[in-house]
Amino acid sequence: MEVxxxxxxxxxxxxxxxxxxxxxxxPKKKPSYVKQRRSPPKEGYFHPPDLExxxxxxxxxxxxxxxxxxxxxATTVNTISQVSCFHLSTGIWDVIRNYCSVKDQQKxx
Length: 109
Hints:
InterPro entries: SMR. This protein is mainly α and 109 residues long.
């Protein structure tokens, strides 16, 4: 009676992965390239005569809300209705000025 052992990994020496004799060399460092500065064009840079007119006609884009700062102000003031979301382009001094004006309004009430 023969017993079926199923699938097995070959164990003969010809099927075994040979051991590495020497470690591979470390990766080579990439050569660094020095960026050369170009001289400005001889004729100068192009300045369109109606550049300001073009830039003025561009509609202002809607900015995203800076969530953490507006939430911080909302929790400080304790009412989210008094805190408006400010634009990302708004500087920190504008945020502080807005915060102080909201605090002053609360003192008046």
